TrEMBL record:
Residues 543-646 form the TSCPD domain. It comes from Caldanaerobacter subterraneus subsp. tengcongensis (strain DSM 15242 / JCM 11007 / NBRC 100824 / MB4). Its cofactor is adenosylcob(III)alamin. Keywords: Cobalamin, Cobalt, Deoxyribonucleotide synthesis, Disulfide bond, DNA synthesis, Nucleotide-binding, Oxidoreductase. This is Vitamin B12-dependent ribonucleotide reductase. The gene is NrdA.
């Protein structure tokens, strides 16, 4: 694999040899998308993640419009389908209940469209096993923020997306001073609304344009809702997005609007993540870091990632344009916890903080020197303006000799460092993930390939410490030390015991802000279905009701796109107990899959699943063709079964209400993304239209 990747990314034999050497020695590991795609000839992106704005392809439509929503979801789907994660800040959309002039009704709000986008993303299985990854954000001033905060209290909702509140400095000041906080939105009747509204409330107000205040709430009350939701369901996280923009190296070029799905990289509209990680374990020799080898590897890694920007396939033309204007790369770490153990330093101790600071400072300086050398060779990034770039707050903290070099030669990459979670690639390298402490000495890992019990290879070392043994304050202090030397951001989760309180999370979030972090996420053990669990208990088996010898029922005939179906529904106490479906010839594929659906429906009914929930799942499933018109229109065999079940249930004196999405299979690309939009049936994936 490493030979394939090195050959694909190198521009000459010398580079190929260098790249292969650092990878084969496990000193540098590129991001998973690069490892999966480079040199394979397959049309997948090398970039792990993207940020896209909510905007219409046609500016005349406005960014707070149905066209903008559909265009945004289409772009999201295209990126997800190619293996990339997507971050979206939905603050551009008007709040729930706001008047919509074009249809003479009211808006369903930003959260409803997040839910819709999430459902579209569930159709994506990246590479056959990788689920679509999303980050959805909403600003603290948005009138839908309270709905957004609590949406994941129902863990069945928004399963594809991580959620974070975009937090302003003004809000944090209001919390500290116990002030009132306005939930407001631009006056959508303003004549410049469609042309100029892009989701930045400060920019809108700076122009003197009016807003509508929907509600005033004590800032601490809103803050408490955020931390309580995080205690209950581990979300939302918080991203101090105003701070992020103030500290951004590209402050004079563009605004950071969202982070990527794991939160380590804040990006401008159409920005991309180009990730790789230094494996610190490979540089520990006799309990110390070999800094000479480390700095040389950093230099090679920066060159590697810069090459990726010119060689990688881009999903959207806007991605390529933005990536090559700024030439962002994201070099980070993996194996920090294991390296500290090998150095006999307890993760989170004062000694470990000092050692980590020295490591990341040396990496920062080596990375910036390498980028200056690339600028000498290939030129600086196109948007580089020396006097403005050098005024950046992060840049002003660089050593004087590096700043002098930047002033003279420029710099190849606008930003260079980020700290990604490195989950899969750290497993590949056999070291701890990113900058996180090890979860436990022994744990059960549940993933899509099964359940695995793992004992850590350093579990018996004296300095080993698990994530739950590190205090919350130590977690945050470690993140803050790293953030000081990383120009982008950090993906880190503060793992908490089940006994942690709401106040504990309140203190963690406040401390993160006070120490200069750009964002923070917590996970309280047991607060949601996690990837890792420290203990396992036998699950109680679902009780299946025995079938009586005799049942009464009805049989319904219904036409489907695949032929006539006969649906038999047997009842107990006027409620469906089992379902049989006959369609097609015995032994045919059609007969087989309909029998399978019927058996599963019957098992669910006998196991206590509500019939309304089963109907909800079936009605509205679309296929390649349909039959019938109006209320009698049948979209597929599952849709037909769902409608027959609903009809039979209603005939027993019951009522059921189902909201169908009416998503069909596109006849061109085969994706379940064929929807009605603006009076025309259009595919959100490939763009095919019946009009």
């Amino acid at each position: 694999m490493f030979k394939r990747v090195a050959k694909a990314i190198a521009t000459n034999e010398k580079e190929e040899e260098m790249f292969y050497k650092v990878m084969s020695e496990w000193k540098f590991i590129p991001g998973g998308r690069i490892l999966a795609g480079a040199g394979t000839g397959r049309e997948v992106t090398y970039f792990n993640c993207f940020v896209i704005p909510v905007e219409a392809n046609d500016p005349k439509k406005g960014n707070d419009s149905r066209a903008a929503i559909m265009d945004t979801i289409a772009k999201m789907l295209e990126i997800n389908s190619r293996g990339g994660g997507v971050g979206i800040n939905w603050s551009t959309l008007r709040p729930r209940g706001a008047y919509v002039k074009g249809v003479g009704g009211t808006s369903s709000g930003a959260v409803s469209w997040m839910l819709a986008a999430n459902e579209v993303a569930t159709q994506v299985e990246q590479g056959g096993s990788r689920r679509a990854a999303l980050m959805f954000m909403l600003w603290d001033w948005h009138p839908d923020i309270e709905e957004f905060i609590k949406v994941k209290k129902d863990l069945t909702k928004m399963q594809q997306a991580n959620l974070s509140v975009a937090v302003s400095d003004a809000f944090m000041e209001a919390v500290a001073q116990d002030k009132m906080w306005k939930l407001e939105f631009p006056d959508t009747s303003h004549p410049n609304y469609d042309a100029e509204w892009k989701g930045d409330l400060n920019e809108w107000k700076a122009k003197g344009y009016p807003t509508v205040v929907y509600k005033e709430i004590p800032a601490r009350e809103l803050w408490n809702k955020i931390v309580t939701a995080a205690w209950e369901s581990a979300e939302p996280g918080v991203v101090f997005l105003e701070r992020y923009n103030k500290l951004s190296n590209t402050y004079y070029i563009t605004k950071i609007i969202s982070t990527n799905p794991c939160g380590e990289l804040g990006l401008e509209p159409y920005g991309v993540c180009n990730l790789g990680a230094i494996n610190l374990v490979a540089f520990v020799e006799n309990g110390k870091i070999n800094f000479e080898e480390l700095e040389e590897t950093v230099k090679i890694a920066v060159r590697f990632l810069d090459n990726v920007l010119d060689l990688g396939a881009y999903v959207l033309p806007q991605n390529k344009e933005m990536a090559q204007k700024l030439r962002r790369v994201g070099l980070g770490l993996m194996g920090l916890a294991d390296a500290l153990i090998l150095m006999n330093l307890r993760y989170g101790s004062e000694e470990s903080l000092k050692a980590t600071e020295e490591i990341v400072r040396r990496i920062r300086d080596a990375a910036y020197r390498a980028s200056v050398e690339l600028a000498k060779e290939k030129g600086p990034f196109p948007e580089f303006v020396a006097d403005k770039y050098l005024k950046g707050q992060f840049i002003q903290r660089l050593p004087k000799d590096i700043r002098d070099e930047i002033a003279k030669y420029g710099i190849r990459n606008a930003t260079i460092l980020t700290q990604a979670p490195t989950g899969t690639t750290s497993i590949l390298a056999g070291v701890s993930s990113g900058i996180e402490p090890n979860f436990a000495k022994e744990y059960v890992r549940k993933d899509r390939t099964g359940t695995h019990t793992v004992k850590h290879w350093l579990a018996d070392y004296p300095a080993f410490v698990s994530a739950h043994e590190v205090t919350p304050e130590e977690h945050v202090k470690m993140q803050a030390v790293l953030q000081k030397y990383i120009d982008s951001s950090i993906s880190k989760t503060i793992n908490l015991p089940r006994t942690a309180t709401v106040d504990d999370i309140d203190n963690i979030y406040r401390l993160a802000y006070e120490l200069g972090c750009k964002g923070i996420t917590v996970y309280r053990d047991g607060s949601r279905e996690g990837v890792l669990v420290t203990d396992t208990k036998p699950q109680e088996k679902t009780k299946i009701t025995e079938r009586p010898p005799v049942l009464k029922g009805i049989t319904k005939r219904i036409e489907t796109p695949l032929g006539r179906a006969y649906v038999t529904i047997n009842f107990i106490d006027n409620k469906p107990f089992e379902v049989f479906v006959n369609i097609g010839r015995a032994g045919s594929d059609v007969a087989a899959f309909t029998e399978a659906i019927a058996r599963l429906i019957s098992l669910a009914l006998r196991g206590g699943v509500a019939v309304e929930d089963i109907i909800e799942q079936l009605v509205g499933i679309g296929g390649a063709t349909t039959i019938g018109f109006g209320e009698n229109r049948v979209l597929s065999v599952p849709d037909a079964i769902g409608k027959a079940l609903r009809n039979g249930y209603e005939q027993q004196g019951n009522s059921v209400k189902v909201s169908a999405t009416n998503v069909d299979i596109c006849p061109v690309c085969g994706m379940a993304t064929f929807v009605y939009t603006e009076g025309c049936k259009t595919c959100l994936n490939c763009g095919y239209s019946q009009c």
